[in-house]
Amino acid sequence: MKTKMKLVVVAVLVGSLAACASAPDRAAQDAADYGAYPANYEELVTDAQEAVLKDPQSAQNKYLSTPQKGFMIAAGSSTPIYGYRLCLNVNAKNSYGGYTGSKLTEVFIRNGRVTRYRSITRDDQSLNKRIVDGCAPVMGRFDKQADAQGVLKTEPKGE
Known about the structure:
5-stranded antiparallel β-sheet, Lipoprotein
């Protein structure tokens, strides 16, 4: 009985520590090194899908954003990792050959590597909330051009 109680206490403490990870302040985000802007993000997403999907060739990707500066905090850490986040809806075939339906997917890229690829699931509402929360700031942001540092280049209007 005491062992069971110790396990519960440890689980609560670990959960509490994970909840303590908070977003870095604006000054830290402004000064952060986000790495190179991933101009080849579609290729990187396709490569990541090769490792995750049952039938990656069947993937129908509908991009909901282009890569935007952001950060993630890896499980068990409180240190932010800076890079680029983008979101898309992915519909791909399962092992029975049928399409699974469009699923919101969050992709995080740092220095030309996909460091996180995760999609909405039926079973994990906590994960689903984190995906939706992660995608909310970038949804609908399509930048036509960005330089190597991810700084947007805008064309003058009406000239």
